[in-house]
From TrEMBL:
<keyword id="KW-0418">Kinase</keyword>
<feature type="domain" description="Retrotransposon gag">
    <location>
        <begin position="16"/>
        <end position="104"/>
    </location>
</feature>
<dbReference type="InterPro" id="IPR005162">
    <property type="entry name" value="Retrotrans_gag_dom"/>
</dbReference>
<keyword id="KW-0808">Transferase</keyword>
<protein>
    <submittedName>
        <fullName>DNA-dependent protein kinase catalytic subunit</fullName>
    </submittedName>
</protein>
<dbReference type="Pfam" id="PF03732">
    <property type="entry name" value="Retrotrans_gag"/>
</dbReference>
<dbReference type="GO" id="GO:0016301">
    <property type="term" value="F:kinase activity"/>
</dbReference>
Length: 135
């Protein structure tokens, strides 16, 4: 599917304003440049302010588990991470950022494992939380 095909229903997803903007833009752009990545770049440039991205960056950098469950923390971490790709540019960096925001007991238990896979780290953090409850 390309972004010029009718199966990509831009009007339904984003409304008339975005639909009209996109049709104007692709009318002057070579066909081979019209990709999903191109759309995302142009959309962000047009509709998402730098102030909004800076705000999300601050939220991400301040994010700690606190009173959230590990699942809630993981959900918020992933949601905010899309605004700070450079802060999660590799699996190892992503894991370190996630681990650093965990509550101390859980962070200490999973920290010694030096995990580099986010899904595995999340799973071990959940298990560490259960272990802490048993003690």
């Amino acid at each position: 599917m390309t972004l010029r095909e009718p199966s990509f229903d831009l009007r339904t997803r984003f409304g008339d304003t975005v639909y009209q903007w996109w049709n104007t833009l692709i009318s002057v752009v070579p066909r081979e440049r019209v990709t999903w990545e191109f759309f995302q770049f142009e959309f962000r440039k047009k509709y998402i302010s730098q102030r909004f991205i800076d705000q999300k960056r601050k939220e991400f950098l301040k994010l700690k588990q606190g009173r959230m469950s590990i699942t809630e923390y993981e959900r918020e971490f992933v949601r905010l991470s899309k605004y700070v790709r450079e802060c999660v540019s590799s699996k190892a960096i992503m894991c370190k950022s996630f681990k650093d925001g965990l509550n101390e007991k859980i962070r200490l238990l999973v920290g010694i494992l030096e995990l580099k896979e986010f899904v595995v780290l999340f799973d071990r953090a959940c298990k560490a939380k259960e272990f802490c409850k048993e003690k």
